[in-house]
Amino acid sequence: MIQALNSAHDVMLGRDSNVVAMGEDVGYFGGVFRVTEGLQKKYGRTRVFDTPIAENGIVATAIGMATYGLRPVAEIQFADYIYPAYDQIVSEAARIRYRTAGEWNVPMVIRSPYGGGIFGGQTHSQSPEALFTHVAGLKTVIPSNPYDAKGLLIAAIEDDDPVLFFEPKRIYNGPFNGFFDRPMVPWAKHESSDVPDDYYKVPLGKAKVVREGADVTVLAYGTMVHVCLATVEEMGVDAEIIDLRTLVPLDIEAIEESVRKTGRCVVVHEATRTTGFGAELVALIEERCFYSLEAPVQRAAGFDTPYPHSLEWAYFPGPVRIGTAIRKTLED
Amino acid sequence: MRDNDAPKKPNRPQLSLHVPEPPFRPGDTPDFSSLVIPPAGAAPKPDITASMTETERLATGLIRVLDDEHKAVGPWDPKLDPDTLRKILRDMIFVRIFDDRMYRAQRQGKTSFYMKATGEEAVSTAAAAALDRDDMNFPTYRQQGLLVARGYPLVEMMCQVYSNRGDKLNGRQLPVMYASKEHGFFSVSGNLATQFPQAVGWAMASAIKGDSRIAMGWIGDGSTAEGDFHAGMTFASVYNAPVVLAIVNNQWAISSFSGIAGGERATFAQRAIGYGLPGLRVDGNDALAVYSVVRWAADRARSNNGPALIEFFTYRASGHSTSDDPSGYRPAEEAKAWPLGDPIERLKAHLIAIGEWDQERHQALEEECLAEVRAAQKDAERKGTLATTSIDFPHDVRTMFTDVYAEMPWHLKEEQESMVAELEAKKR
To answer: What mean pLDDT is predicted for residues B66-79?
Structure first.
């Protein structure tokens, strides 16, 4: 997935001289996860550069560049570090189009690795997407595999509004399926690792049915897509799994169609449960599919605690938690 | 797409962006001969009541005490007794050995992460010696020397690194994110710079209550770019807070050299001037100079003369953490080329030069420290390592839900119950 993200940068830096990539350790070193490796050498120091350790500064200057007409791709090293930039994102980037009646816009992408499963403790494991989906004017994208990661990032860079692009770092190197005690499978053995070298887009706002099924709809994104797939295979449940890919704007049609068909739904995310994005999904399903539902919609999510270090596998919403939620909705 | 590439006004100069680059990258031969290093003893020592303008030169110079003959010279010589010097030396050796053992433990898969302070041991150990025992520190992740110097039990430190059942923080925190109220060591945060203005707040509280204790706030050169640094400076200045503010300039923030934090144009100590505070730049590898400058700033703060900013000029000889390989962004031999030497070697040479130490005693001390660290490691590992604790959950898993709030709300109680049920299901 890292190579796919690198390729998306490469393609866009090559195609559009207005694209710049910036962030802490992004330049010479190529990023702590190596997503921008080799790009400074190829495109020069004024196109791909290191920034001071100031997340508010990174986002604020990216906004400034975007108002000039550039398309900055700003990396926040870990999503857990994004909070100093919150004011710039929420009060500024999100509203500039609105408050200038469209005279200015902010075609900026904020990329950031998120999520747990790497023993990163509470400052390298969080999933803060709901803090951004709650804000009018922002788009939020979360890929689950290399092919989508590249296509979605290119679409995000070409988008004329600010996009939060959260990368599930646990699956940077392979589709982790939640069974932490089993051997790791690399991306090379996964069909979505076939990533074209050239330009292509995966449109924002379009979900993908990653497994068709009749009995229950499972909504997931990021790492949890793979955990859900493995869980339903293990359980032998004929579930339909939808990878949302974009949280805002949401592909509501895909969700409605599937829930109407199955009559049951489970919503899964790694982020803490209370007022998580799952709450929004459940509300939408209740509003739009109530008469098709055979059972209450269930949620499987992270617990409402800070992300613990050594108890990571007790915290992580793995196959047992997801399986319990699926069973519950099937039995009700 | 708008065309931003064509120069709009051909008669005007074309603008260009400056992106700082460090002087040496992998493949280069590091040469620090152009670095201005004033002689030891040359910097004047003002009174602790001095104003910012009287101390301005100290922000651009480099306060040094140990000269090339390993003698302590000049007005900043703290004239410490040999026992205190030997204590600082022992603490530094201890930190280095401890770091080495924990780094290796991480490489052996016994924990997830570790951060060494190699090359900058003098900064925290000598500062601890200069502060009063009940002064409060708001450290970064590289001030383990404060805990070592204040006698934090070694086994407990290791248990924290291992997140094992002896870990007082219940395995919640990333390794090295220690916390100990008893040792005046605030909880280390992985989010940079946050502790710096918190130190100012603690100091303000001490002043509000008419206490006599002061605070010391720590930050790295890279993190001075964060807004929190500037908030800390502003509040310290506005309220004349009894706080010592310290920037550990170890030249590198992961792969970014200090120039990316603004170090090309001015010293970090000079940042103080804009806030009307004294800024003191000190050789961070000279334990005597570190002690002396911290003592000066602490005495100043304690006597209601207000805050000061110290820049410890040092070098991060190790990688940022176990997660990076510094040979990918700087020459491998750069640490050896660092012109201010190694803090342990320099203090050792000084003690020998004044006839208070010798090679045999040094070797014996190293062996003693190593034996103590090894014994502690055995004790700590009896309580498990992350490799085992992350599967066996020796901490009562229910503790995951405690301390989120003072009293556990209903939804956490429900989640706690469901997690216990989940783990039982996993066992089946």
So the answer is: 98
* Residue A302 sits in the same domain as residue A215: yes
Alpha-carbon distance values, B405 to A253, A308, B397 (Å): 40, 15, 17
Helix (H, G, I), strand (E, B) or coil at A43: helix
| B265 interfaces chain A, CB cutoff of 8 Å | no
The amino acid present at B417, given as its one-letter code, is E
Greatest CA separation found in chain B? 79
Distances (CA, A) of B142 to A257, B16, B194, B311, B410: 54, 37, 15, 15, 39
CA dihedral A88, A94, A96, A100 (to 10 degrees): -150
User: Is residue B33 situated within a structural domain?
Assistant: no
Over 60: is that where the pLDDT of B334 sits?
yes
Please check whether residue B315 is in contact with residue B220, taking contact to mean a CB–CB distance below 8 angstroms.
no
Global pTM value: 0.95
Is residue B80 pLDDT above 70, yes or no?
Answer: yes
Q: What does residue B158 show for φ and ψ, rounded to 5 degrees?
A: -70, -40
Do B273 and B418 lie in a common domain? no
Nearest residue on chain A to B328, alpha-carbon basis: A29
| Distance (Å, whole) CA A175 – CA A185 | 7
Q: Verify whether residue A269 is a known catalytic residue.
A: no
- How many CB atoms lie under 10 A from the CB of residue B371? 11
Classify the C-alpha dihedral B406-B412-B414-B417 as positive or negative: negative
User: Mutating which of B162, B260, B321, B392 best tests the A interface, going by the most A Cβ atoms within 10 A?
Assistant: B260
Do A234 and A147 belong to one domain?
A: no
| Nearest C-alpha neighbor of B213 from the set B221, B203, B227 | B203
Report the CATH number at residue B227: 3.40.50.970
Rounded CA-CA distance B256/B254 in Å is: 6
- Specify burial of residue B6 (Cβ count, 10 A radius: 0-12, 13-18, 19+): exposed
**Cα distance from B311 to chain A (closest Cα, Å)?**
18
pLDDT digits (tens, 9 = 90+) for A86-129: 999 999 999 999 999 999 999 999 999 999 999 999 999 999 99
**Structural domains counted in chain A:** 2
In a domain, A199, yes or no: no
- End-to-end Cα, chain A, rounded Å: 39
What DSSP state is assigned to residue A192? G
- What is d(CA B44, CA B87) in angstroms, rounded to the nearest whole number? 27
pLDDT band at B107 (very low <50, low <70, confident <90, very high): very high
pLDDT of A241: 98
Residue A84 lies in a domain: yes
A chain contacts of residue B228, beta-carbon cutoff 8 Å: 84
Q: Which candidate from B112, B225, B397 shows the least CB-CB separation from A311?
A: B397
Is there a single domain that holds both residue A111 and residue A235? no
- Residue to mutate among A309, A312, A326, A328, with most B CBs inside 10 A, is A309
Q: Rounded distance, CA A25 to CA B27, Å?
A: 19
Our CA angle for B201, B206, B207, nearest 5°, is 95
CA dist B416 → A251, A322, B408, B412, B420 (Å)? 33, 16, 10, 6, 6
Q: Is A28 within 8 Å of B227 when comparing Cβ atoms?
A: no
Residue B210 distance to chain A (closest CA, Å): 33
Partner residue facing B226 (CB), from A54, A68, A309: A54
Residue B425 has pLDDT above 90, yes or no: no
Q: Is B395 on the interface with A (CB under 8 A)?
A: yes
- The CA-to-CA distance between both ends of chain B, in Å, stands at 60
Domain range for B358 is 53-321+331-387
Report the pLDDT value the prediction gives residue B5, as an integer from 0 to 100. 62
